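The instructor's notes for this session suggest beginning with a concrete chain rather than abstract definitions. Hand out the sequence below and ask the class to guess, before any prediction is shown, which regions might be ordered.
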Amino acid sequence: MNVLFLTIGDFNDLKAGSVHIDVVKKIAEHGHKVYVACANPASCGDDVTIEQAEGISILRIKTRPVKKNTNLIEKGLATVLLEKTYINAIKKVLCDVRFDLVLYHTPPVTFEKVVRFVKRRDGASSYLLLKDIFPQNAVDLGMMSKKGIKGIVYRYFRKKERNLYAVSDYIGCMSPANVSFIVNNNPDYPPEKVEVAPNSVELKKLDYDEAQTRAERFYIRKKYGLPTDLPIIIYGGNLGKPQGIDYLIKCLDANKLRKDCLFLIVGNGSEFFKLQSWINEAGLYAKNDTLSVKLMKSIPKEDYDALVRSCDVGMIFLDHNFTIPNYPSRLLSYLQSKIPVICATDTNTDIGSIAEDNGYGYWCESVNPADFTMMVDKMLQSDMHAMGQLGYDFLCKNYLAENTYNAIFKHFK
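After discussion, reveal the predicted structure:
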């Protein structure tokens, strides 16, 4: 089959991988011809270029900035203009290619016209990988409203969301809670065409014996100035409003005098400097004799993966106001590194209940910092090694790229 994958990602580092790159590479491994149409906002050259990498044709399309570190007005304008930009690029560079299947993900919700164009031109099937439920998530965070002036923007994007679902032959969701949400809130869409097609990865092959693992762990900790004799509880990823940084700060403040573990925060985002300011005000400095919290900016993925492997527990935070069931992909790096998780989230996501039901983590609602402290105490008294192995086993059964490939292509044999 000829497969077109639409994304706003840059698809620059195929070797490092990601939840999208790993699935695309898996599709190519199964003998399909894959074309990726991706955003190239930093381009100063041609409007569109095409190149080959690992058997995949990558169409790089010049766009306005559409991702992180962009103000809302600029990001909104760029999102609105995506459809026309992508259609023109496909017409220009892929005019002779006929596609059997078009895959795409959220965000954004503004690929509907692109999908419809390819379906009409080629008679292609379509599959949506639903990673983000917008605009309801923006309403939950107070960035949009269903009433007043902001309601105009909400209704525009809600219509785009409905249109995207309508043009999709199937919708693959990250978890059972996501399936229920889409079915219950979109009664016009056939419920039998909504299914689980989760975030997934390709396992990294690490031929380490126990001694080499201990040596890497020691080396990585020394490299980043981390204690070598304490459990390290890591949070890695975006530091923005969806993560409920105010609650995270309250949790860290409630545990800043602990001597039995280190809280390590690694990431970037709109709330990074708020966290940094709190650390400075609290007098928490990166000295091994007094360290209880350490904040680091994002590092390259390969380095980050090695850092996670040197830690003992992973953390997941979500704002408690969410009515949509988010399922952060950062869980996968924790599970692959065989470390258990502490999930502090809203009550609508099932990421915490799945972790508890399968023995690889604990959950609390992200409201009361004392509940988080209880989870930390419970985790430090648990068999973290055994819990981490259960998480790894669950990953291997449910969250590999092969699982997502099978979920999609069982419809298109």
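Then share the key points. The longest strand covers residues 33-39. The mean pLDDT is 90.
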